[in-house]
């Protein structure tokens, strides 16, 4: 029997941009989280001219993803036990999210390295062999000064970034990183509960073939600030959350438009972002409503950032 990961794989003017308003497809932050729309001093948004196509990533050399899952605070269960130093250390049975991404790469033609060792991100030269870097439920101050500089240089060289789940609970006090997330940051979350995801864009590689609505369980993230100048790909319908959307720090939710996935060009690079992925079952073959759509969605986003599919359409 094929795994759900396999099934998902087969399912189907730059300066001006800094002063334009958000497109109609962007999220519309409510009054509780509208903190303005800073430009972070970089070209960002939906204009491909914000991308630096410097020829640093040759498709003839194949496609390669680096997964970074270091935690300097709370650690999600889907990450399992902390990994040993170095690149590609031995994995335990409970490192299910990293294993799932490795398997997606094996089944879809891209190589995957993984690490929780910040020294592996210590220079842009270490990162440039990768078409994209994924922050997978990293937490708090997971980068030192050298790694912060390297990530910024890498993105400016046309590198790709994939932020998954608690990547939004990372590097809170670094404005450039907040911009990389789409002018968004984790504030709090609702109870872990089922809800209805609404696919609001079907043109993107990460949403093609997804149903218009699908049930999924997560701890639905409330964001301050909420994303602007991005292409929102999926939202959660707050009215379907039986236990409500109010977080433990009092956030009332986002109302009619509560984004859970989006994409953008940023400071020369590409970024695909999702707050989804909390439940361990989302990363394994254990049955869970909508898990195949989550994996399909993630795979499409990864492929688009790697350059294997059109980006942010």
Automatic annotation (TrEMBL):
The keyword Signal applies. Keywords: Signal. It comes from Nonomuraea polychroma. Residues 95-302 form the ThuA-like domain. InterPro entries: Class_I_gatase-like, ThuA-like. This is ThuA-like domain-containing protein. It holds the Pfam family ThuA. Residues 1-26 form the signal peptide.
């Amino acid at each position: 029997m094929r795994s759900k990961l396999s099934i998902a794989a087969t399912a189907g003017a730059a300066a001006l941009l800094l002063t334009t308003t958000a497109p109609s497809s962007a999220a519309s932050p409510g009054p509780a989280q509208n903190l303005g729309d800073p430009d972070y001093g970089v070209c960002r948004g939906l204009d491909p001219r914000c991308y630096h196509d410097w020829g640093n990533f040759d498709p003839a050399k194949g496609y390669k993803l680096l997964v970074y899952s270091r935690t300097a605070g709370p650690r999600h269960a889907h990450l399992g036990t902390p990994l040993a130093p170095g690149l590609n250390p031995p994995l335990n049975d409970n490192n299910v999210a990293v294993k799932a991404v490795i398997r997606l790469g094996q089944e879809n033609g891209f190589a995957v390295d993984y690490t929780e060792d910040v020294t592996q991100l210590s220079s842009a030269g270490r990162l440039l062999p990768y078409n994209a870097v994924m922050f997978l439920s990293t937490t708090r101050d997971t980068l030192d000064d050298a790694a912060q500089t390297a990530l910024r240089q890498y993105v400016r060289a046309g590198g790709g970034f994939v932020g998954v789940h608690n990547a939004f609970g990372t590097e809170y006090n670094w404005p450039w990183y907040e911009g990389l997330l789409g002018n968004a940051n984790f504030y709090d979350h609702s109870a872990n509960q089922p809800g209805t995801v609404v696919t609001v864009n079907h043109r993107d590689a990460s949403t093609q073939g997804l149903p218009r609505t699908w049930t999924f369980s997560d701890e639905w993230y409330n964001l301050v600030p909420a994303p602007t100048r991005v292409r929102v790909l999926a939202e959660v319908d707050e009215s379907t959350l039986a236990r409500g959307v109010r977080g433990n720090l009092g956030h009332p939710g986002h109302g009619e438009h509560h984004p859970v996935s989006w994409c953008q060009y940023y400071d020369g690079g590409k970024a695909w972002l999702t707050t989804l992925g909390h439940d361990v079952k989302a990363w394994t073959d254990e049955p869970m409503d909508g898990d195949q759509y989550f994996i399909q969605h993630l795979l499409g986003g990864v492929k688009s950032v790697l350059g294997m599919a059109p980006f942010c359409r």
